[in-house]
Write a structure and sequence with these properties.
CATH topology of the largest domain: Rossmann fold
Number of helices: 9
Helix content: 40-55%
CATH class of the largest domain: Alpha Beta
Structural class: alpha/beta
Number of domains: 2
Order of helices and strands: HHHHEHEHEHEHEH
Radius of gyration: 21 Å
Distance between the termini: 54 Å
Length: 238
């Protein structure tokens, strides 16, 4: 009974309802349009189930599982902030990881994140406020409020450490799916002594029958993985 309840639930919400819509639409069409809708239905289904999500996400996360990392400077990359001043789930987990690495010590923490428009808060300010609330001394936190992407994260962090004469090994904190690209870009900007403290791992690897039902969460993770692959490709082409 529980399985059928979950199945009904999945039928009524995206992406399952769109998959069914594509299939029904294809049923009433003929020729190329029919096959095109069936193709979209299959691709949407595959990109929405856990095993395919894991196939795509594992290669960019695997190097950072249980990786020990220590250093003198903590750099926390922004992951998004909403107009109401709330951090996105990714950003919140990154800040918590920064707190875990910086608590009880005198490590410098650089929080890096600008804002998408004037109606939004600076992400670095929201990140700093959360760190202070968690117990990090305000004097240990430096804000980069100018960066809007990973390249600018690295560029402006480099400027901060040079202007302030900060020296030491860097602990880079970001989501596991984003770490490979983050490390590549930071090394390009001269951060040779850098280690990865990844958080928010998306890989699971353990499945039940429910993992073969389409999920919006899996689709979101697949989108993030594909974005990272494209980002790494563009970085290496330049």
């Amino acid at each position: 009974m529980l399985f059928f309840k979950k199945l009904l639930y999945y039928f009524l919400i995206p992406p399952w309802i769109f998959i069914v819509g594509f299939i029904l639409g294809g049923y009433f069409l003929k020729g190329f349009k029919r096959y095109l809708l069936f193709f979209f239905a299959v691709m949407l289904y595959l990109f929405s189930i856990s095993p395919v999500k894991d196939i795509l996400i594992y290669p960019i996360e695997k190097d950072y599982i249980n990786l020990k990392c220590d250093g003198d400077i903590i750099v926390v990359l922004g992951g998004g902030v909403y107009g109401n001043g709330e951090l996105s789930e990714d950003a919140f987990k990154r800040v918590v990881k920064g707190f875990e690495k910086g608590r009880g010590g005198d490590k410098i923490i650089i929080v890096s994140g600008g804002r998408v428009s004037e109606s939004y808060p600076y992400e670095a300010e929201v990140m700093k406020d959360l760190l202070v609330t968690l117990g990090i001394r305000e004097g240990n936190i430096i804000m980069d409020k100018d960066s809007k992407d990973t390249v600018e994260n690295a560029k402006f962090t480099k400027k901060i450490v040079e202007e302030k004469g900060i020296k030491g090994d860097v602990i880079l904190i970001t989501s596991a799916y984003h770490m490979k690209r983050g490390i590549l870009i930071f090394k390009k900007y001269g951060f040779d002594n850098i280690c990865a403290a990844a958080t928010d791992f998306k890989f699971d690897g353990v499945y039940s029958i429910y993992d073969f039902l389409p999920s919006a969460s899996n689709l979101n993770t697949v989108s993030k993985a594909l974005k990272e692959y494209l980002g790494i490709l563009f970085y290496r082409i330049k």
